[in-house]
Design a protein that fits this description.
Helices cover 40% and strands 11% of the residues. The chain has 309 residues and is an alpha/beta fold. The protein folds into 2 domains: 221 residues, no CATH class; 78 residues, no CATH class. A hairpin with a 2-residue loop joins strand 5 and strand 6. Helix 3 packs across helix 6 and helix 4 packs antiparallel against helix 5. The model has no long low-confidence stretch (mean pLDDT 88).
């Protein structure tokens, strides 16, 4: 996991020198949720989002793509947040992320990562958990990079990417928001494997704000347009995929209002003027974490309201 470099890039602080509380968004979904909250922050003035926050989004590294289990995502975030120094393993992951996110090398991760591992293991000769002071190892870094990429490399750009990507937050000051779906298939709540309780307890232990939508984030989007009282709630809770379209029940219902809706290409303009509707509608459903476990509902409106304070 790393901090996104372009989250809320259209939103500029009123005073660049002002010390502001950081708000970290950790999303279970790596597309729709990111796009929605990126839009929310970009329109922070229009939507009365407080200017006292510095918003950061935690995005997946190449080896975390496709993860959808809240327990796994939370544990990885806590692990990386606790690492005060850069380990050799994380350095190699970030180098791979740099090449991919900047589209410097047109190659699959399955090809690129082994190349990075070979080059860095040979030059640095370190173990995975060894600490790397990258500022003092620029000569080795350059030698390793030359083995991977023969084009022009701007070392300062790589150093900045690595530094800016590190997850650094003050537990007593900053806010971490974990935003997940209540997917019963991946977010298990059985007596002998109660991941739901584990995540709830772990968030409390680490002062992390937990936001859950049952059945999924699209229900929160749907509430921008409709109170949902006309939906079949048994179908909504199960939220099965249609065999022909591959769309879930709530995705199909949302498309009745937004025929062009796509998970990986959300248009925030279609939601920004309806946020008040979503807040009002959300309050008619379960809003407490324990209630949301087995009932339709969300507490995402509480996050929006908190960011306005």
């Amino acid at each position: 996991m790393r901090i996104s470099s372009n989250f809320g890039e259209r939103s500029k602080p009123s005073n660049a020198l002002e010390t502001r509380k950081k708000v970290f968004f950790v999303f279970e979904g790596d597309k729709t949720e990111y796009q929605y909250f990126n839009g929310l922050i970009n329109y922070r003035e229009q939507l009365n989002i407080s200017s006292c926050y510095d918003f950061k989004s935690i995005v997946r590294s190449f080896d975390e793509q496709g993860w959808s289990n809240p327990k796994k995502i939370l544990e990885r975030f806590l692990y990386q947040a606790e690492q005060k120094s850069l380990t050799f393993d994380v350095l190699k992951e970030l180098i791979c992320d740099y090449f991919i996110s900047n589209k410097i090398i047109d190659a699959e991760v399955s090809y690129l990562q082994p190349s990075i591992n070979r080059a860095f293991d040979t030059i640095f000769n370190l173990r995975s958990e060894d600490i790397v002071d990258i500022e003092k190892e620029t000569e080795k870094l350059e030698k390793a990079l030359v083995q991977i990429y023969t084009g022009e490399i701007v070392l300062e750009s790589i150093l900045k990417f690595v530094q800016d990507s590190k997850v650094v937050y003050e537990k007593e000051i900053d806010i971490v928001c974990l935003i997940v779906d209540r997917d019963k298939k991946s977010f298990i709540g059985r007596k002998n494997n109660n991941q739901y309780k584990y995540v709830v307890d772990k968030c409390k232990e680490n002062s992390i704000d937990l936001y859950i939508t049952n059945p999924c984030f699209e229900f929160w989007l749907y509430l921008h347009y409709d109170d949902g009282k006309g939906l079949e709630h048994t179908k909504l809770l199960e939220n099965e995929r249609d065999r022909e379209t591959g769309e879930t029940y709530i995705e199909q219902e949302l498309k009745k209002y937004l025929p062009g809706y796509k998970k990986n290409n959300l248009n925030f303009e279609e939601f920004k003027d309806r946020i008040e509707n979503a807040i009002l509608n959300a309050n008619t459903y379960s809003v407490e974490i324990e209630e949301i476990k087995n009932s339709c509902g969300t507490n995402l409106h509480q996050l929006v309201e908190k960011l306005r304070k």
